[in-house]
Amino acid sequence: MTQPYVKQNIANGISTIEFFHPAHNSLPGDILQKLVDEINSAGANDAVKVIVLKSGGDRTFCAGASFKELININDAETGRIFFSGFANVINAMRKCPKFIIGRIQGKTVGGGVGVASATDFCMASKFAAIKLSELNVGIGPFVVGPAVERKLGLSGMSQIAIDADSFYDAEWARQKGLYAQVFESTEALDEAITAMAEKLCTYNPEAMKEMKNVFWQGTENWDDLLAERAAISGRLVLSEFTKETLKKFK
User: Strand pairing partners for 18?
Assistant: First the structure.
């Protein structure tokens, strides 16, 4: 079995940050923290003009939070720390002064939808269906909600949050504004991402930094907001309902 990893490769002004976990790219706390570190590192590196965020494997971009860790939460503080993992990644992406291009090659669930939503320009394959499954296990998409709502609007976010059992296809996500473009194959997706990243490297970094600040205006309170949301999820995961539901996944 391949070991989980987060790695960064920098070439010609493009930082490619890739994460992987053998359990459908579901992300435990240590991998989320490594993602934060690599995003911060790329953001502070003058040699980097643009960031591409991707995951390993073919058909799943990210299955969200690690169920193995979720099942073992027994107190509210551990729960808060667990749910802060995705909050920290989203906030690192928000504050990063470089544009982040998202490469969504396959299905993405829960926290993974939050990560996709926090990219600045998101490109996907036709296999990149999305699902907010949190309500299924007795919690809700509280931490990723602000990022998802920022891209899909309240109506789109509410729809997939309530219809927690259904995947919504890549075309739906494109029409709602999450994906800028959807491609027929991973090969076509990668070609387009390379072309976009190379083009961005020719633009004024200062202009892109100022544009990013403008795009994210109104989110300055997210450090506090996402921490509050993590505390809600941390409390709910201890409820009898959620504990019973999670036993089915053991």
Answer: 7, 54
* pLDDT tens readout for residues 169-202: 999 999 999 999 999 999 999 999 999 999 999 9
Q: Residue 114: helix, strand or coil by DSSP?
A: helix
CA atoms within 13 A on the CB side of 94: 22
Q: Which residue shows structure tokens 């995003």?
A: 39
Question: Within its chain, how far is the Cα of 37 from the centroid?
Answer: 15
Strands 107-109 vs 99-104: parallel, antiparallel or unpaired: unpaired
- pTM value is 0.96
Per-residue b or e along 83-119, where b marks 16 or more CB atoms closer than 10 Å to that residue's CB:
bbbbbbbbbbbbbbebbbbbbbbbbbbbbbbbbbbbb
| Alpha-carbon torsion (36, 109, 106, 117), positive or negative | negative
Strands, E assignment, the chain: 5-11, 14-20, 50-55, 60-62, 99-104, 107-109, 121-125, 130-131, 181-183
CA nearest neighbour of 25 among 60, 69, 71, 70: 60
If 0-12 CB within 10 Å is exposed, 13-18 middle and 19+ buried, where does residue 71 land?
middle
**Predicted confidence (pLDDT) per residue in 94-130, tens digit:** 999 999 999 999 999 999 999 999 999 999 999 999 9
